């Protein structure tokens, strides 16, 4: 999934962004592009599917807002049109701006001009965005003064959402991309645990596959399960942090507090959290779907996770010497 997200960001979304600099796209076109990208990310196929554990609008947000840094094409289309509006307000020296001023503005200001129903849909769309200008006035005036239009700053301004408290866990995390994706889904509470599958009628089993005693909720799988607890304690002990695993809601608060701290140990802890969540999740899938009858111990899984920690930290110039110290 991490590879598919990267592929979508660097190909389809990038191509659409390029064309939006040249001409606005219809909403129906953007909706079709989004549906193809969404299906490819979640299923690996281009055929449109309804499978979407996390809403696409949430995926198309910065990581600080709980997304995966995929550009929202509808928003980017509006920002590209705002750039046209910005060129009109500056009276840029090009033929299109002079034509609009001569035929539509007719010596009126940008806010005073009346746009009739007979105008083209592109002109209507551009001038409809004037309603955003009062909220953008300070930034708008600053861009006009500097004679520079910054699309990314405007995008951040228009994307008015609250930041998620666990954003520091994913920002600057050197864990494997597949591990950060699973951690991101866990933070949203969208991993396909048995309790979720049972609610939608796909399965009837409700016993944990790792300890065979409790309902398999996200809380139980990651932190309350005896097997998972032993893995967490083993990995944290290697880093030099003493902590007793708690239910997911409380654990997420502890993770949020720890990942905001500075220092090499906490940078390694960020990697360890993502890799441990992924390691437990992967082992659970091996047991359920691959018929892994040769059960590994928590120490075996912990050693695998520590091996990944050493590998990922070794290639970081700031963490290499600290990883070497932990390896002694």
Protein architecture, described:
The protein is mostly helical. Helices cover 62% and strands 0% of the residues. It is built from 18 helices and no strands. The protein is elongated and about 80 Å long. The two termini are 35 Å apart. The mean pLDDT is 85.
Tell me the span between the first and last alpha carbons: 35 Å
Number of strands: 0
Q: What is the overall silhouette?
A: elongated
Total helices: the number is 18
Write the layout of secondary structure elements.
Blueprint: H1 2-10, H2 12-20, H3 27-43, H4 56-59, H5 73-90, H6 95-105, H7 121-128, H8 133-146, H9 151-158, H10 167-170, H11 177-187, H12 194-199, H13 218-224, H14 226-239, H15 248-259, H16 264-289, H17 298-314, H18 320-327
Helix pairs in contact: 1-2, 2-5, 5-9, 11-16, 13-14, 14-16, 14-17, 16-17, 17-18
